[in-house]
Design goal:
alpha+beta; Uridine Diphospho-n-acetylenolpyruvylglucosamine Reductase, domain 2; Uridine Diphospho-n-acetylenolpyruvylglucosamine Reductase, domain 3; Enolase-like, domain 1; four-stranded antiparallel sheet; 14 strands; globular; binds flavin-adenine dinucleotide
Length: about 280
Amino acid sequence: MKPSPFEISRPGTLDAAREALRDEAHGTKVISGGQSLGPMLNLRLARPSRLVDVTGLPGLAEIRKTETHVEIGAAVTHARIEDGEVPDPIPGMLRHVAAGIAYRAVRNRGTIGGSLCHADPAADWVTAMIALDAVLVVRGGGGAREIPMSGFMLGAYRTAMKDDEILTTVRIPRYSDQARWGYYKICRKVGEFADAIAAFVADPERRTCRVVFGSTSGAPFVSTELARQIATTGAAVPLDAVKSVLRDSGLNLSEVKIHQLAIAHSRAVTEALSDA
Ligand SMILES: Cc1cc2nc3c(=O)[nH]c(=O)nc-3n(C[C@H](O)[C@H](O)[C@H](O)COP(=O)(O)OP(=O)(O)OC[C@H]3O[C@@H](n4cnc5c(N)ncnc54)[C@H](O)[C@@H]3O)c2cc1C
């Protein structure tokens, strides 16, 4: 199938891009790497008559390291992160997550911002960025605002962004040398979306311990209960207890999914604590 006809513009400024997005008569949509939107256009699941390409906007492909944070422009590709162009907020985690997304051709074009805005429950960055306590900077008619990643994804393919807003920056806190992380995803084949994802990030200096499950049916599930238990005992929680937490999560997960998530979680935590 081919997409419905559309025009594409490549504005040179954020203001011009936002102006184009306000043009509701044209059913306008942002496009970044096109790796999720492209297939949707081809299948005619999306039929915008105008696309606004944000990859050339000032700042969107930039990477910055400050005293306290690492800032990644929304249009930075998975491949650039995989290749180590982004300074690590916590050693090795971003490169590991990026390298596990699809295959290199997708990673060459797909962007971190596009992935977060698309908000696919099985996507990697939505889970990883919640685990890392990232904050997203978006620009709309009222100027810039910050949305903590924990409140960004509202459900499958739904975010807290307004239609005329553009995600510009992903801001990740820098973790201490004592920080530990684990990230594990279960896929049937390399390059496929995950059946289950688990992320674990702990930093005693920042007094942070986060347990996140991805590839549930909606937004990633954050378990404060498991995080509390791991932070208190310094050890992984037994598999059956992890499964009980998932059963009580209210997520209506199948037993197969619970098993996959629990295994992914155990491996992520073991990985993180084994080199502590
Ligand atoms: C075969 C295949 C396998 C894949 N496997 C995985 C995988 O294992 N894990 C994974 O995480 N992902 C996977 N993906 C998805 C891939 O990571 C995409 O790159 C990503 O989901 C979307 O990024 P994009 O830059 O291509 O966004 P686009 O496709 O251009 O846009 C996606 C959506 O986000 C919106 N958008 C994009 N940028 C912005 C912005 N700056 N501000 C506001 N809205 C914006 C668009 O309007 C659109 O609705 C896979 C994709 C393919 C084709």
